[in-house]
Amino acid sequence: MKDSTYQLLEKSQRAIQAAQTLHEHGQEEFAPGRAYYAMFYAAEALLNERDLRFSKHGGVHGAFGEHFVKNGLLDSKYHRWLLDAFDRRIVGDYAIQATFTSQEVAEMIGQAIEFLAQAKHLLEATQA
Fold this sequence. Notes:
The chain is built from 5 helices and no strands. It has helices spanning 3-24, 31-48, 57-69, 76-94, 102-127.
């Protein structure tokens, strides 16, 4: 595995930890952004291992769907989670008053954890 791929996976893990900390402290407005970035960095790690890099979020989203979901390497739910999390990040970052329930945030964090685990699993499987 490339060192840069490993670093993206580590960054994804740190984003999950930040989302959990924000959630634990009642910062439901900001935790979804960190959960999104955890998924985003994991998607970037997968693409990076194939020498695919993008300067915009939409490029990562599209390439992730094309290279990992359309061909059946990953379930389509991961692509949907990434896109939904992006939308929630936008609301949390830019809306004057974002209202996410504690349950919604916990679900997003759970999705980020599963997303990262699946990315790691796929990377490990392709290394063998």
